[in-house]
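Design review, sub-item: ligand-bound model
Attendees: FS, YL, KQ
YL presented the inputs for the 4'-phosphopantetheine complex:
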Amino acid sequence: MNRAVYPGSFDPITNGHLDIIERASRVFDEVIVAVLVNPNKKGLFEIDERVNLIKKATKHLKNIKVESFSGLLIDFMKSNDIKVIVKGLRAVSDFEYEFQMALMNNKLDPDIETVFMMTSTKYSYLSSSSVKQVAIFGGCIKELVPDNIIKDIIKKIKQNSKNIIDK
Ligand code: PNS
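KQ shared the predicted structure:
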């Protein structure tokens, strides 16, 4: 079976991510969306919340699995017998970082290939951090994130600001 991993922080998943997942799901038999557990970067959503939001946003796709991982991506790939990494490229500014990561992963395991998909132009400005900023200041996040998770994101942001106020 032709499988690939689509790794990231997904804090939270955006329509840009979903676009890459949908396109990758047409190219590969199975795509594992892998959420990085990064102890150095807390983020807004807990890891299980990110996983659940991705599951909800991709429930129309049959060949997607969502998991979390910690440590090196290549170790996660080895234990799941996956050889291909899918990444989305938004702009030239993404290139340097992605190029470095692709070469490092290939150095760590020469059997691994990274496949880049160019983002759709309508999502080229989108990032999880800009979505969070818009939502935190009460802006509209429709068309930025999947429709069926908008309420979850707004609820989390309201809870979060309440926690900050309560502290
Ligand atoms: O969405 P992000 O935050 O740009 O995703 C980055 C991610 C998760 C793909 C990257 O940080 C990663 O693969 N981390 C795992 C650690 C690792 O394998 N590092 C070696 C490559 S430099």
